[in-house]
Amino acid sequence: MSRTVLVTRTRIHPEAVTMLNENGFECLFSPPYASGEEVVRVAREARVDAIMVSQGRITREVMAASSALKVVVKHGSGVNNINLAAAEDLGIPVYRAVGANARSVAEHAIALMLSLLKSLPHLDKATKGGQWLKSSFVGRDIRGARLALVGLGEIGREVATLARGLGMEISAFDPGCDAAAREALGRDDIKVVDAIEDMLADADVVSLHCPLTPATHHLVNRSFLARLKPEAVLVNTARGGIVDEEALAEALFAGTLAGAGIDSFEQEPPAPDLALWAAPNLIVSPHAAGLTPGAERAMATMAAQLIIDHLAGKPVPPKFHAKAAALGGLQE
């Protein structure tokens, strides 16, 4: 008898579909950002055995809708759209495809950094507007630029690897780093600081790679931004709720921050009239840092394998478990 996996997006990599089919699973695709009521209805009527989560919110009501539901797996690593506490109450494990899109997201973060440090938004607009700035413009060097990483998980470490190849000087803050990790990172010329404030004042780039939890919600607020020098730029390829978007817009308009590259937003899709849209030196993308062919394949096949392994009774390594105490999850 076939079992059903509800996928909260319109497609996943064909290899993952084949894996699931060969192990007795049928994929049921949901429109992106479908309403909670619609997802509940589909889950209940199909009596889904598993949910592969991409877009939309997986609430307590969604997980309780199917009495057959045994596992929830994230097609990616961020779980702020899954109510982890409710899943634990219901006895439903939640796993995530940790590291599957790390390289892709890291490349996107580096692309945003380079574009901002090289003033590409400003130069693009000026040149198209008839201003030829060759005689007055002076750019910035990447070699020797100081990069401050907030978070040293799979993605943060990939960013560090790429940045080190460009000659950047790297500092990082991650309260999860133990003494052994600090020693290893030090050998890679990454300075791990004890307090996040210790690396902000001198940073040319601050790049966010931490999960969204109650503790990191609006971590980047007015006070945080005030610690940065006016020449600094901010890159967020993590989660939108980590940044206070109103405070960011104020800093960009005031010129107390040189630029920002933002791939995720507190509300997705964001409102068309978001004040941030009018801010200068801003580059945005639609939470697309992890959407490359390699990352899509890796996320889908890893998520599919986690579903297959769990329902086959095989142990899932702890690194893939998503727990509310560590990661927060969706707050209802």
TrEMBL record:
Superkingdom: Bacteria
Alphabetized GO MF terms: NAD binding; oxidoreductase activity, acting on the CH-OH group of donors, NAD or NADP as acceptor
One Pfam family cited in the UniProt record for this chain: 2-Hacid_dh_C
Residue ranges of domain D-isomer specific 2-hydroxyacid dehydrogenase NAD-binding in the record: 110-289
Domain D-isomer specific 2-hydroxyacid dehydrogenase catalytic: start-end pairs: 5-316
UniProt entry keywords in alphabetical sequence: NAD, Oxidoreductase
Keyword Magnesium recorded: no
Family (UniProt): Belongs to the D-isomer specific 2-hydroxyacid dehydrogenase family.
Name of the featured protein: Hydroxyacid dehydrogenase
Species of the source: Hoeflea olei
Top-level taxonomy: Bacteria, Pseudomonadati, Pseudomonadota, Alphaproteobacteria, Hyphomicrobiales
